[in-house]
Amino acid sequence: MFPKTTYPDEMRALLLTASEGNALPLWQAVPLTSALAALPAGTLRDYFPLPQPPEEQLRRTASSEETGAVYRLCALLVRLLSGKEMPERTGPSDRRAVLRTLAAEACPAGEEALFRLLDRGLRLEPTRRFPDRDALLSALREAEEEVNARVRPGLCLRGTAGVFAGKTLSLAPPLTLGRQPDLCQLIFPPDTRGVSRRHCWVELVWGTVLITDLHSRYGTAAGGSDLSPGCPSPLLPGQSLALAGGAQAFVLVRE
Prior knowledge:
The chain is an alpha+beta fold. It is built from eight helices and eleven strands. Helix 2 packs antiparallel against helix 5 (65-82), helix 3 packs across helix 5 (65-82) and helix 6 (92-106) runs antiparallel to helix 7 (111-121).
């Protein structure tokens, strides 16, 4: 979602949102954390205030740059998801309770996957954390797929207007909606007015369906809001997806 070598304005805006005590959803928080993981470790400390790893707080032998970065990134993810700092002075059992509660609130479709990841990344003993940022990113990808695998099978689009009205279509993101058969997976007839050849993109990020308008001529709306081209927006069960000003419309259902 974010370039891995720059700080675009959108990334800065999300970091500012979190710094003001606001929580971010998983589909924004994890890509932001992953993008930051690609930056030099020192940048994390300079750009965003993060809790020190316990070994640095106690002035013991400093953690390696990598295990310290893993701790800071996981602490950042907690901050992004909760809008609150991770308590710095808690025992292992208290810390695990905090993480389990956060994981259940942020990721009800697969809280164990998120809990296991945060629990390891925030271990008090550096040698028990992920050995480096690449290992953390790999674990994030695996945890996301575990969550998505639970959500994906029951997702459907139910047509409410247009050529698919009255039909229920299984939704297996990622896929593109549009008129061009070789580029789209949900294909509209060639003469469907208001639907572009590649109209919008549907993906599943940490159990949340995201819709991105692909610069279509007549636009896309998700959950009642018109989408800005190229900017993903969540579509929750029960909400509508509308193309061509509502001439073609669906509701997202989870069976």
